[in-house]
Amino acid sequence: MQKAITSEQLQAFSQALEADKKHDVLRRAVTKNGILATSADYRSEVDMTPVFSIDLDTGDVANQKQSGRCWMFAALNTMRHDMKDRFKVAKDFELSQSYTFFWDKLEKSNYFYNNVIETASLPTSDRKVAWLMTTPQQDGGQWDMITAIIAKYGVVPKSVMPESYNSSKSNELNSTLNLKLRKDAVALRELVANNASEEELEAFKTKNLGEIYRILSYTLGVPPTKFDFEFRDQDNNYHIEQGITPHEFYEKYVGWNLDDYVSIINAPTSDKPYNHMYTVEMLGNVLGSRGVRHLNVDMDTFKKVAIKQLESGESVWFGCDVGQESDRQKGIMDTELYHKDQLFDVDFAMSKAERLDYAESLMTHAMVLTGVDLVDGKSTKWKVENSWGDKVGTKGFFVMSDNWMNEYCYQVVVNKKFLPQELQDVLNEEPKVLAPWDPMGSLA
Which positions are catalytic? Predict the structure, then answer.
């Protein structure tokens, strides 16, 4: 039986508070300074000194500015790190995030249309339909989504397709696209209800994708099909490549076999046994691509494969819940950074699985591991390249404690050669399909 809060309960709460001799001091401190500043323990700064036994020189950090393209920046950063080592491009060289952004927006729109048609027989109150309409498209994505874009469209240098107002501050573009997509969803559902033919549905999609292409061209610029690439390397030698296509550029200057790179997750929830493959329903961008695939492993394996790739000299794309227990300005992510439990005398502890199951945490941001500190063979802290510019952290680099990785890191992308053979074999397993709203389907 439900009961309202009583006056007796309120009186007891008040008396208990007054009985605590330190409550007035704490009240003044928290009221004046806020919860985080009052509960901060900056002794963690000593432990998070940015010195690492393995420390890759990856050049200058990038800046995604007011956009949600971290997953894209992180992926392109791992590729430019390799270019810096092989071709000696300048430390501030970047691959164009605006180029991949353009194609991702167009492909997500087509993916949305397809999902609308697939769910058109369901009422708008159905959870899947409601989930679709909540965010028809957005800036975020997953590793397998950026590889799908690159496989289809290639990459270009940032100098060929630079940033624009709308790529750096994407809220206006997103609200405009989502308005259009929702309006188109109304028409598509009506067409299906009226038994429109497949040809009629395709004609509708083609017309409206053309309009979206126009919106993207006005806001982001028209992607190049051929271009000249010229640069001076770090030894001041001049290079020029004339009339190269985005695919040719990728093959010559990046040259990765994208199928070799796989998503490894750590999701210790009961519905996802370790050492099995998972995918997420209705998650993706390029129709016909391999889709999003995750191999779920324990945290010990998760860290070992990341360390192996770092030891080989290659940086690691990873996804985490960056807002948890972190200081953006100081560039520290550490479970000992704040002590809200001691401040309020309240137990806030939850397991990683509980945080996932009860919506307290999920992947919100992607960055790059560029170093790790190994003491007696075990990781103690990690060097992180962010994409928030060089005004935060140590010139844009963060330090992450090993326990923070345990609790708030959910995904790394590694070359499958670093996996033990038994896990390489699991990669061929038919993945279990998770619900669209599963936390492992969150977009960084």
Answer: 70, 365, 386
